[in-house]
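SEVERITY: medium
COMPONENT: batch folding queue
REPORTER: lab tech (J.R.)

DESCRIPTION
The queue accepted two submissions in a row. Attaching both inputs and their returned structure tokens so the on-call engineer can compare them side by side.

ATTACHMENT 1
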Amino acid sequence: MSRAADRLRMVIDHLDRSAASIRSSPTSGQTFSHSSPHKLRYSFDTGVLTPEQRLFYEENGFLLIRNLVSKADINAFRKEFERICRQEVNVPGLVVMRDVAIARSEFVPDQRAVSKLQDFQENPELFRYCALPQILKYVECFTGPNIMAMHTMLINKPPDAGKRTSRHPMHQDLHYFPFRPTDRIVCAWTAMERVNRQNGCLVVLPGTHKGTLKEHDYPDWEGGVNKMYHGVRDYDPDHPRVYVEMEKGDTVFFHPLLIHGSGMNQTQGFRKAISCHYASSDCYYIDVRGTTQENIENEVKELAEKKYGINDVAFKDTWAFRGRLVQGERTTL
């Protein structure tokens, strides 16, 4: 371990000590008042993250791990995605989304018609991603040992059709989630091929995870906005940005309050990524009525009524039935 890492380890060990174990001694006959340092808020010391990684996540709200998922697994997920697009397999509860700019006349039963698969928890092959040991060992650093897979997606960002609709507005994932505490939720997002600024990589605003949940709604974009693509109403456009360029198998973990989005795909190919949002099973549901999240609650209820004919479903129930335990015990969530 380097000297810098040794020093960081000492700092973290000090920060992770309980306040009761910290003592100050009077010097030169005078007693000074000191505020006790806080624990690292956003991660646990499980022995997986280095001191540098823990401090980076603490300050920035995201962490990129290179070459975490094998090419064999990525290729298997891609083949299953293509089978679903060809309608060769039926997946209960799966939501198939299409880019708003794709005309209905162009719909064909292959990946060109599909911009995202959502809620694939009933597909054993795709859901295998959510239980990969190498993913979960990092997830545990943020959620603790009892882990629920709450939200699954395979994104197939299409070449932009000239309307700039392949963009994803800047947003905070917590806007969609009626469970807390916030700091025990994390997203794992894995590139299924090279992801860069040309094909619409993630862009993040480092440090914004330290703020609060902001108001979200559909942005007023001339070319239209894809369904459920809400954006932050008010954020500092001059905040420094990081474009998270990745290679196949790289995985980024990020906090649900981190403001992020993605640019349009300016290439002729599709940009694929697979992701899962995890939460500690010790999390609990909240009532979002009367909060900034009420608009997404109403939209989800409308979709549930349209798709399943259910008109009295609770927002939290739409999450509870999708959640799957992937490690430890299911407690309150």
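ATTACHMENT 2
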Amino acid sequence: MVIGFILISGEAILVHRWLPGSRNLKKSVHLSMQGLALASGVFGIWTKFHGQDGIVANFWSLHSWMGLICMLLFVAQWLIGFLSFWHRGEMRTTRVRVLPWHVFLGLYTYGLAVATAETGLLEKLTLLQTNRNVSKHCTESMVVNGVGVGLALLSGIVILAAVSPKYQALQSKLMYSDTKCLSS
């Protein structure tokens, strides 16, 4: 789930910044990478619920409920992105109106995925420490804390790169040229 929703999705968010080539190429790569991230998330959820406990027994924590919300938002984002930006049936005015919301909800979902991963790390570590399987200052605790700090730093870098002024200026120019073309 971390690989799909955080690493692959983070790269997909930044594909418009680092990938050279046409807009169609960037949109194709973005859609494909987000689809791979979604497939990773579905596989992660399937493996969790494939156990003997069943679905309901796994929804008892903040982590599980945040994960469900994150998954639903991710599916909705992917479908809206596909229908609005990839599928040619939508009018250009619709795409211009949807784009800011798509960007916002994409970054929100990404941030929620990171927060969900952080709560999952905390939940697992707390259960291990409560059951006295690991001590508070052991190597496993330090690794889990290191992963948590690493995820927080990574999400900050991805979100900063996605909303940096250079990107915003380029996006504003594109939106201005789109609205200018529409008014002509």
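NOTES FROM REPORTER
Residues 92-130 form the longest helix (39 residues).
No errors were logged for either attachment.
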